[in-house]
Amino acid sequence: MDTAVEVGSREEYSWRDEKRPMEVSVETAHQISSDPWYQVAFVLITGINSSYILGYSGSIMVPLGWIGGVVGLLLAAAISLYANLLVARLHEVGGKRQIRYRDLAGHIYGGKMYSLTWALQYVNLFMINTGYIILAGQGLKAIYVLFWDDGLLKLPYCIAIAGVVCAVFAIGIPHLSALRIWLGFSTFLSLVYIVIAFTLSLRDGLNSGARDYGIPSSHWDKVFSTIGAVANLVFAYNTGMLPEIQATIKEPAIKNMEKALWFQFTVGGLPMYAVTFMGYWAYGSSASTYLLNNVHGPVWVKTLANVSSFLQTVIALHIFASPMYEYLDTRYGRGGSPFALHNVLFRLVVRGGYLTINTFVSALLPFLGDFMSLTGALSTFPLTFVLANHMYLMAKNWSLSRAGKAWHWLNVSGFSCLAVVAAVASMRAHRRRFKDYHLFADL
Description:
Low-confidence stretches: 1-19
CATH topology: Amino acid/polyamine transporter I
Number of strands: 2
Oligomer: single chain
Strand order of the largest sheet: 1-2
Structural class: mainly alpha
Strand content: under 5%
Helix content: 55-70%
CATH class: Mainly Alpha
Mean pLDDT: 85
Radius of gyration: 21 Å
Order of helices and strands: EHHEHHHHHHHHHHHH
């Protein structure tokens, strides 16, 4: 691992100054510097427009209302873009491409922070993947209920089936760059369920009477639900694995990553806004954390939407599991073709085992909205906002004005406080869930 950067040093690299290809900080079994910026942009858009967006009407708009929800989403987009640009511009600090979040933190701070960052990122990605498997299970159950509403196929069974499908996909796709054509399928599938959810919500809204847009619950419940919704806001935009995604992009890595990020936070966010706002307009405070449970329409149309949501979730999960796969493949895998028998069997055992744990937790605690807020509080806030601002402050200290330093310290302290408060609010929500539902609940 590289030694820490001395604060105040003038060691700085950028795509404008570097003419030769950058070396990689450490070895990896996955592909580096192979993807054009627009492919990376679609990786980011796959994350932002995954099936999670079907829950934002209920998990963000309902607790915040029209003003808080709209302003919150736009403000969170601006703050998230800024924080991600900071991380992207640190990709070549030290004269090498820092291809993992923990490598970047380790280079700047040293070994202890390397381990802490890896732990935070693991929690972040594990919880995101858990949420994806819950989503996939909800999609399967919704399909079953459309045809056989007899209660035999319960949500935990659907989650188990979803986990198996995700494992099969993970075995067949060796690394993040290999998604290529699957990103096209993902975009198409996203458009299918977004257009259907938007259209059916619009029809329901036009055909229904007055809706209640009031924020439900008592005073203290409103306070805690608002805090939880703020954590959902940051969860909606951020991956917690930007250096790993940036590692796949062709050089100049910083310039190309900036293009991908601007595309993600402008054009890429429009479908999410459309379905989130339309869902809340149509159903008000009764909007579900899985919007397709609210909509009315022909069975075949709702089935198509749920199938598309399920399949897109399988692809999106692979993106957020890829840092763990890369770690396991690099440390324990063998060389040769990714499709050699020994490598396929390795992925079967290792990735299958990892997703088995994910699937078990998903079935045990299938509370999707609470998982989003808890993920945002415990890992997205620290990784994307606290750590990003502090790493930039440490690495660029010599070139920042006094006002610039004060600004980054304000971000570090402010987002640290928000992370603590959001974690308390999310844990409170989980405790209340346990009063209403048992483990392996059929929601």
